[in-house]
What does this fold into?
Amino acid sequence: MSAPKPWFLLPGLAALARNIKQRGRTFTAQDLSRWADTEQIDYSLNVAKMALDTMAAWRYVQLQNAKLQRKRIGAINVWVLTESGWAAAKAALRAMPGGPPQGTYALELDVRLWNLLRIRRKLTADEAAQTLVDASAADYPTLKKRIAALLAAWAKYAPKAVGRGVRREPGGHVRFVLYPDNKLGRWPPPTKAGEMHPSAFSNTAPVPSNFLKTPSSEEHV
It folds into this structure.
């Protein structure tokens, strides 16, 4: 079994996903410390610097030639997310305890389709469309094609989780099967090459107790 990922990687990448909305936007260790510091985790500047060094080693971020100058501080390193860093940041946000705010992804078609496949274990695109889409909706044919494309992509990019039936069902439908030993959890499989799944962060070290903030207790007389 591989060594656990360092604890500061997950909250650091998730903070970048929450705060960087445009590709190419630069940030500093000070920014990362401010974004990742929460009521529960003490994400100090030193922790942010360690996280960026690790991200750089894994090629999630790269150092920009430009330096940000601040009075009395001098030059400060400026960073930017790489393509793999973008993928890792989005996966980390979903992998955080509790995940994104309730409802952020709940209504997305891929999430609803994945939940249906996890319940039924076997599905054709036609069966899924009949369950998830109003048959009278004007965009029914488009959404049915999208469902078929999602199932096919899952079988292609997550073959250990989703299998494609060898024989076609009556009417020419392809049946997709969810393998019982898959470890993808509640988030849908990847749909393209290079996309990172939240399960990539399942083996992450817990936050050390000295970096956890504890509420101050008041003595009652």
